[in-house]
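S.,

Sequence below, as promised.
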Amino acid sequence: MHCVGFVGGKKCATNGEWTMPRAFLVHWNKEEVLEKARPLRAAGWSVVCEHGDGEVAFKSIREKPPEVVIIHLSRLPSHGARVAEVLQQTKATHEIPIVFVDGEPDKIAKVQQKIPNATYLQSMHLDKFLQRFMKA
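The prediction came back faster than expected:
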């Protein structure tokens, strides 16, 4: 099935049906990543998660680009930053918006130095930020 992307989801070229917008969620704890995905799914997102391997995350994102990549900085922020760096250095993924969520202020500052053009916010503001991707 081939789908054509647009902001707010995708319209399938095969049958014309709308699908949910896709988010890729990176957080380095299996139980927590599933918990963090729950409100995104409830808000209408199709969420793919990765909790253990940055290379797997990159390959998955490259193969099926989401509307947005969400990386939690509350665990292993340097790993999350590395995933974002590779995404931004790769032609096929460099335009995908990256959102960093939560984390310690000093760790956030270090990541911001490496990746200044990403969005940084606290999880309580994530839903409002993501609403811009839901509007057609």
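The mean pLDDT is 85.

Coffee later?
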